[in-house]
Amino acid sequence: MRAAFPGLLAALLMAVLAAPDGAAAQTIPSAYGFIDERQEVGAFAGYLSAATGRFGHGPAGGLWLGGRYGLELTGPLSLEGVVGAVSGTRDIVSPGRPEGDRVVGQGDVLITTVDGRLKFSLVGRRAWHGLSPFVVAGGGIAVDVAESLEADAVLESDEVFDFGTSFFGTMGVGTRWFLSPRFALRADALFSLWKIKTPVGYGDPQYGFEAVQEGEWVRGLSITGALLFRW
Fold it and tell me: Is 151 helix (H, G, I), strand (E, B) or coil?
């Protein structure tokens, strides 16, 4: 019996050593996942709130709808093209009326924006728990394509505000949430700039406005959400 015991002990020891190590066999899932797809398209919707300028006749912003295309470059960088339309209103302002009573009407505006942006992902070509936060900046143009407003008819021709075509700059932050390799949701919070022109009639000395500029830069703040398809 004593002779069999060492042999039995040796057999048990060998069985333990041969058994797979449970801890070593486990794989700890990574919180990061690589992004293989390089292109994406999507539709977005949101709201842009814009300053109306010194005299209050600029567009106040509104519902912002549009589409975007993105192309992943090397590392954390990607390029984007964005086309959108801001549907909102602006006040019709008569500079010859007393202060506080210069708004004589309101009209619709439809600001079309076209811009290109450079996006920098904070986690590179990866997603953390499906999220890929980023910073973005770019520039393009903004054009009011709405028809002439009948309310402007009560003003002198040199007092009528015309948005025309302006540089449109953007910068901001956001994140993408990858639902699958093909589909993702995206949210952006942006700071933007465009320039509004001052009608030449505002420089008439009879109105008493001091240091009237030809135009002024005004800021806008927006939040948008998008659904993306990737390939």
Answer: helix
Q: Which fold has domain 35-230?
A: Porin (2.40.160)
Q: Could you state, in order of their start, the residue ranges of all structural domains in the chain? A: 35-230
Count of other CB atoms within 10 angstroms of residue 64: 23
Q: How far is it between the farthest Cα atoms of the chain?
A: 122
Which residues, other chains included, contact 202 with Cβ-Cβ below 8 Å and sequence gap of 6+? Answer: 55, 95, 159, 209, 212
- Give pLDDT tens digits for 174-207: 999 999 999 999 999 999 999 999 999 999 999 9
pTM: 0.84
pLDDT in tens, 106-154: 989 999 999 999 999 999 999 999 999 999 999 999 999 987 777 688 8
DSSP code string of 170-200:
EEEEEEEEESSSSEEEEEEEEEEEEEEEPPG
- Name every residue whose Cβ is closer than 8 Å to that of residue 44 and which is 6 or more positions away in sequence: 64, 65, 66, 67, 68, 84, 186, 188, 224, 225, 226
